[in-house]
Amino acid sequence: MKFPSKEELNEYTHTIAVGAIKGAVIGTGVSALGYLYAKRRAPVFFTYGAFPRTFLLIAPPIMIGVTTMEFASREFERERYGYVDAASASPDMLIPKINGSNIDPKLAAKVGANGTDGAAAEPNAVLQYAAENKYKIIMGAWAASLAGSYWAVSKDKYLTKSQRIVQARMYAQGLTVALLLVSVMLSVSNGKEKDNSRETGEADLREGKQTWEEIVEQETARETAAHLPLHLSDRKNNGNHHHD
To answer: b/e per residue, 34-50, with b = 16+ CB within 10 A?
Structure first.
């Protein structure tokens, strides 16, 4: 297992910080546009209390900032360590490097085929896609749940509009918490799969190295038993002796 150096940690921290700041700036713009739209087209929005206004101001910067930070982290891993998205990569790209060395294409294809070939790999591809895009899924599901829950509670004629908004927000928050828990489990599972892939690749490399060494030893023993020269210099010397 290779531990990152201090320089790598500093560069990684700087990369994700820049990504988060970019997302926060974009989210602030979204909040400003939403605030202006509500002020001009839906002034009743400001009669619901301080919570909706606060949520409108802080939710987009936080959500978009976290998402762009995740994208920056993925891009850093891809550029620095060669990690790629398994859902869109070919088998020979899944493990491009181990311990800084390029893997033989046949060995990479063999390692990749163990987990990506056949219909049995489809559930793994779905889980991998969900793990790689968990923040986009959470944001989309949160927005959909908020709209859907508000539509559901709006059918109750005995509730006021503010009560409907509160209930819809509670349902959406409950679903968001559940999605966050699922994303944590996906992250843990994805981390274990990456560790297993690295261990498998390193084991195959060690096995290939041992096989190569065994072939060299067997060939050397065979030539020695047959009294054959082992080096080109020996062949030249033997030729000179024959001419003499």
So the answer is: beeebeeeeeebeeeee
Position 88 confidence tier, pLDDT thresholds 50, 70, 90: very low
Give the start-to-end residue ranges of the domains of the chain.
119-244
Looking at per-residue pLDDT, the higher value among 14 and 152 belongs to 14
The answer to whether 110 and 208 have CB atoms below 8 angstroms apart is no
pLDDT at position 174 over 80: no
Structure token pair of residue 76: 């850093």
CA–CA distance, 86 with 131 (Å, rounded to integer):
11
Return the pLDDT at 191: 60
Q: Which residue reads 């944590």 in tokens?
A: 184
Region class of 101: left (phi > 0), else alpha (psi between -120 and 50), else beta: beta
Give the pLDDT score at 189. Answer: 66
Q: Do residues 137 and 186 lie in contact, with contact meaning Cβ atoms separated by under 8 Å?
A: no
Instruction: Report phi then psi at 102, rounded to 5.
Output: -75, 140
